[in-house]
Specification:
InterPro entries: Calcineurin-like_PHP, Metallo-depent_PP-like, Metallophosphoesterase_sf. This protein is an alpha/beta fold and 311 residues long. Helix content is 21%, strand content 23%. The strands form 3 sheets. Strands 1-14-2-3-4-5 form a 6-stranded mixed beta sheet, with helices on one face. Strands 6-7-8-9-13-12 form a 6-stranded mixed beta sheet. A two-stranded antiparallel sheet has the order 10-11. Bound molecules: fe (ii) ion (FE2).
């Protein structure tokens, strides 16, 4: 083999190993992203919502546990957890320790597939398929989703598993609607309140839609339901992204350009010139990965602090 070709192959292999090492390192580069959403009724003061998602926690992830606990220093008015919290059958006490400071604030949650079933090794190429569910071949291990939900609800967080509810946050009354994980086809959108009425009691300041996976059928339902803001996780922001290009996949039927961050649904942005009546949508890239694919590239693990401002 010519020396030049050997040199090229060697450099290529070294670059591949370097990229893999970086991608593993990036999984621990926890980042707080901050966005502003002009969605509150005119004249209202700001409301700060901490959006966490896709922790995929294992007992040995001490730095992630410490970082999640430190998020309480933000003193959010509301915490929303969009699921995929667990990645190990014995992780519940570690997860409860990680979340404990956040459970002191008003909150709401939905579950993801990785709250119901433990991760299993899969062909790495499945990640790049449009519908990665087709490759599920190993019998899944149940995770303590019910126990996790009991801990959260005991702290006052609202369980939005195919449910509606309301929550008070900084004196504001927020109506909530959520679904069970659409990635597992467990979503059953809650029936509308009779006659389209608002929940009884004080006036509603904001209507939030919450889902783990942002499948378009659910986004349509939440838009039609009058949500002011939809919060979702699941995509990991693409997890392995191409710099200056972005996500390659979303692991659901959402387009890759909305794999993470603040967008609109169904239009690109609700404040687009001319206005399109769309709903604000925030997709959190999440804090974890499957323990069998501990890599992220150009897509740091994140939580997001959304500052809701008056329209
Ligand atoms: Fe996830």
């Amino acid at each position: 083999m010519p020396r030049a070709l050997l040199t090229a192959l060697g450099l290529g292999a070294a670059a591949g190993v370097g990229a893999l090492a970086w991608a593993h390192l990036e999984t621990s580069m926890f980042t707080l992203r901050e966005v502003t959403v002009p969605v509150l009724p005119p004249g209202q003061p700001d409301l700060r919502v901490l959006h966490i998602s896709d922790l995929h926690l294992t007992p040995s992830q001490e730095s992630k546990i410490a970082w999640v606990r430190s998020l309480a220093d933000l003193q959010p008015d509301l915490v929303v957890d969009t699921g995929d919290n667990m990645a190990h059958v014995d992780v519940l006490p570690f997860l409860e320790f990680a979340l404990a400071p956040l459970l002191e604030f008003p909150g709401a949650f939905v579950m993801g597939s990785n709250d119901y079933y433990g991760p299993s090794f899969k062909n790495p190429t499945r990640y790049l398929r449009v519908d990665a569910r087709v490759a599920r071949s190993v019998e899944p291990v149940p995770l303590p989703a019910a126990e996790l939900a009991a801990t959260m609800t005991a702290a006052g967080w609202k369980d939005l598993t195919n449910r509606r509810d309301t929550v008070m946050a900084d004196g504001r009354r927020i109506s909530l609607v959520g679904v069970d994980d659409p990635h597992l086809d467990r979503d059953e959108f809650p029936a509308a309140l009779s006659g389209g009425a608002a929940p009884s009691g004080p006036a509603i300041d904001l209507h939030l839609g919450v889902t783990h996976a942002p499948y378009t059928r659910v986004l349509d339902q939440m838009h039609d339901d009058g949500s002011d803001l939809i919060l979702a996780g699941h995509t990991h922001g693409g997890q392995l992204c191409v710099p200056f290009y972005g996500a390659l996949v979303t692991n659901c039927d959402l387009d890759r350009k909305r794999a993470k961050g603040l967008h609109g649904w169904p239009g690109p942005r609700p404040d687009a010139p001319g206005g399109n009546g769309s709903t604000w949508m925030h997709v959190c890239a999440g804090l974890g990965t499957s323990p069998y694919a501990p890599v992220r590239f150009a897509c740091r693990p994140e939580a997001t602090l959304l500052t809701l401002t008056a329209r």
